[in-house]
Amino acid sequence: MIHTVKAGETLSQIARDYRTPLSSIIGANPGINPNVLYIGQQIVIPGFPDPNTIPYQIDISTENRWLRLFKDGILQKQYPIAVGRMLHDTPVGSFIIINKAPNPGGPFGSMWMSLSKEHYGIHGTNDPRSIGHAVSRGCIRMHNQDVEELASIVPIGTAVSIHP
User: Any idea what DSSP says for residue 113?
Assistant: First the structure.
């Protein structure tokens, strides 16, 4: 997996975002100076497949409050979602799914899928009435049966694009 450095990112934060030890990232990138990154720099993140080798992609619109699943560029399904509320916006950008955790407990419903941005994920809910609204702390909420279905289809490394 290749990560492209964005403005303000540090190697330590990138390591936290991918839940990958900093030493592993340094080891996978010979010659990298962990204290000097530049915008557009390509960094190998070990342990994740290249998203371009995965036939699935997830496209999320925070304004329309839907998540669309594509396979080989063809729309497979659209799901209703809840997004971040005021002061807790859902992050915009390109991410990947880095892990899955069934039955995470609390308000996260029956499934949690971490995104490659620390503290954010796609998850179920214990409040199905919240779907369709801006109510979360930035995560993408789905009906439990929808997130379980999605998690059963997409592999780790699936690209996730979030936009307004």
Answer: E
